[in-house]
User: Fold this.
Amino acid sequence: MSQAAQLKSVSLERVPSLEIDYMQLDDIIEKEFNNDKENLIMILQAIQRRYNFLPRPALAYLSTKLEVPFSRIYGVATFYSTFSLEPRGRNIISICLGTACHVRGGERVRERIEETLNICDGETTEDQRFTLETVRCLGGCSFGPMVKINEDMHGRISSDKADKILDPYK
Assistant:
């Protein structure tokens, strides 16, 4: 599937109330980053902070405002794994499956959280509350298995208690 076809297939049905605030995009593009196309990555980060993903209409608007081809913006947005073209949950769960976490049960933690939320790696719950992703290292190897929820780090998570760490985020 071509990159353009992939982008067209991004479903906004999962966020029915999504409305692009073009005045807010103007504030980001003009006031924060001075219409400078050299700041493209930082602009994309700001847009993603606002919507929790990069909506196609916002990317198209950015292309027009910066006079940068849409294909270049799309290329940057798909190159970096930190960007998402799909709607993401309010809470991002990152489960470490690096070597240290893996040997200490990281896979079992992932399986337990997948069962609890009824989603797989890379998916978002229907209520847009959680997105689950696996990562190769969270930098806490001696505390594995590690789980990061938003900016909160949780270490030495056992599979039988993995679902409990989600409670404060529900």
About this structure: The beta strands are 91-96, 130-135, 147-149, 152-154. Confidence is low (pLDDT under 50) at residues 1-13. DSSP finds seven helices and four strands in the chain. The helical segments are 3-8, 22-32, 40-51, 56-66, 70-79, 99-103, 106-117.
